[in-house]
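Problem 12. The chain below contains 105 residues. Write out its predicted structure in token notation.
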Amino acid sequence: EFNKLAEEHGLPPVFYKEGSLWFGNSTVVSEEGGVAAAEKAMTEAGLPFDPLETGSAIEKAFPYMANLPESYSGFLQKDGGSVDLEGVQELLVKVLGTFPNVSLR
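Solution.
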């Protein structure tokens, strides 16, 4: 657990569990693979998520979103979040620096 390791080394958390909402045109394939591909990968990995199958379903779950095309779909992964990449780098440098046989250049 990176946050526990960060705390042990006097650093702030590096993972923020705030949920992750994915949505968009369900027929479009993007660099990330699109909504359908992400849902498939999460199902195969056993990660829980709440499907949102239409633009109306997304708007109902998130009332601040409006006028989404009905062709949109998405999902909410409640355990998702964001990672502070610079914080992870700082943490790894600090942790690795505690090992006498590690040389950081």
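Discussion. The mean pLDDT is 90. Students who got a different answer should revisit the alignment rule from Section 12.3.
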